[in-house]
Known about the structure:
single chain, Dimethylsulfoxide Reductase, domain 2
Amino acid sequence: MSNVFEDITCAGCYCVCDDIQVTTDGQQIIDVQTTCPQGQAWFEQARQSETLQPQIGKDAVSREDALARAAELLLNANAPLVFGMNQSATDAQRAAVSLADRLGATIDSGATAATRALQQVGEASCTLGEVRSRADLILYWDAEELRLNEKHRQSLAAGEPALSRKIVTLGTTTTAQSQDIDCAVTVPEEGEIDLIWRLRALLKGIDLDGPEPTGLSIPEMQQLVSLIQQSRYMVCFYGSSWKQGTLAHRKLEALSLLVREIQAERRCHALSVPAAGQTKGAEPVLAWQTGYAAAVNFAAGYPRFAPCESTTIRMLEKAEADVCLLIGADPLAGLAEAALNHLKQIPLIQVGSARLKDIQPDVYLPAGISGIHHAGSLYRFDGTPLPLRALIAAPQLSEAEIIAQLENLLTTS
Length: 413
């Protein structure tokens, strides 16, 4: 007997669409009504995850033995690191924070640059519903994938009444001109901060002296300023490249200052767009559990934010972490080669619905998928929490249940 589920949430990417129709036979997913390839791939992984077994090294073992070995590795560690949690449900992220607190470990979501900027100058954000209903100027800054996302375009077009809206694209490569783009500006990476400062000056009526910045022109900047001044509600989507590089937090600080100054005369917000195939991550849960959204260290017995010391990349590249617990889907995303090399040298524990391909974990604990096998909730990239429903049964526990069992073992040891 088939069961049809309406308005199912898909955690295949940062859009977290919540209008998917799924048909099951009670044991397997038969059909998924979505044209999104990332969504199709996410639902299809259910079959693969159901056959996974706990492992110690390359040997299949019982869940109890795998948990015992993982607890032993964590108890013997001096500087444990908890990382990942991409596409993990909120309850799994909360369980990871609790475990890190118990261990005195460092827990990181990989969003250190955004967190440093947030701690310095704050953040002005909004929901996608507000963008759809109110924004009359949208800037896509190195966020071309989002602009071309069919579900995103449909969402913007669904506003009632329809808005007359201007679209601007900015990025390191030239965007192909089309009818739905009103202005396309190529901005070299080294000129991004310069552009923001010059826009701030022009918006204040300050004349610009000196040579034009590399790759930009005064007329292009004046056109941007004119579009901003004509708008009533402006939103800037900026891509994952903004979180990379040594000056990433400075760029984000500059953008936040620009948004703040524009808000003096009109509504203006900025939204961070994760990398392809990723979701919002653990930043919201870390923020309301610890006060910080990334690079949180519990070694002192309370949460400390140490962006120059407790980031995952730094701890691995400096060989400071002596055991690592990886949680969730694609936990190695964004890690540099030097960090990956150190992961191969230390005990590695993985909890997730898909086993690592490039690195052999010392302990692997397979988990069911929240939103397919287990219920829960997940944050969309605009910060909106959405429910995840259990569609079919699975032999594996959820990530949250596995982490909770691991913490119980640590407590009783």
